[in-house]
Amino acid sequence: MLAHAQELVYSLKELMPTQYQKDNLEAMLALFLEAQGHPLPEHSQTKSPSAISRFLNINPWSTREMIRVVRSASLQTVLNVLASSGKGRKPFLQVIIDLTTLEKRGKFQEFGDLIRVYNGKRGLHLVVVYLVIGRCRIPWNFRVWRGKGTPSPAQLGLKLVKRLPKLLTQRFETIILADTAFGSIEFLEGVRRLKYHAITGVAISRKLADGRLLRHLHKTWATGLSVWFKVSCYCFLVLLET
What we know:
It is a single chain. The protein has helices at residues 2-14, 19-34, 49-57, 63-84, 153-162, 166-169, 185-193, and strands spanning 92-103, 115-118, 121-133, 136-144, 173-178, 197-200, 225-228, 235-238. It is an alpha/beta fold. Among the domains are: 91-201, Transposase Inhibitor Protein From Tn5, Chain A, domain 1 (Alpha-Beta Complex); 204-242, no CATH class. α1 (2-14) runs antiparallel to α2 (19-34) and α1 (2-14) runs antiparallel to α4. Residues 235-242 have low confidence and may be disordered.
């Protein structure tokens, strides 16, 4: 694993067009790899916070190419682990979909229409996908929610699920994990058509097949209760804390 990590770091450094940028990238990676809980630029012992800030915001280097290199290395590592584990039932691939807000204050003309208000928070709203395989959690993909009148977070999440690499989904039993923001009928039906499993949060305002709202079950439900939702053929297992 260490050899693969070192090879990846060297590959990323070679993508930097100048030695100055290579040094900045190395300083950033050192902050993360130390794993001391101090990854911010001001904790760097080799580069100033302003130098790292310029590296992230101004210096021209290919973000897309870096993403491709990291993805390729991650896939290869996972496939190597899978090959060494021997034959048997398909292992599980957990796909976590999360809506993350990077809060922003002030004016950011360079972001155009990307800064929006969602659930009372103003900032950059990202639908992020993580792949969890064993003890590894890999940030894989993301989309920016651009506001009302554009694809919803659930629709963006479904697009990201459809773009999962077949190299993994064909070799793993795929489980989609998401919160209430992704509990729409469109999202769940899309996941089912892909023949994946889905575990999502469900809003208490959701109607059941018998017309009742989910919030009305609080006096009669029990851990492990199965319920049927209106306009859907899904049966959900409701797990509750007592």
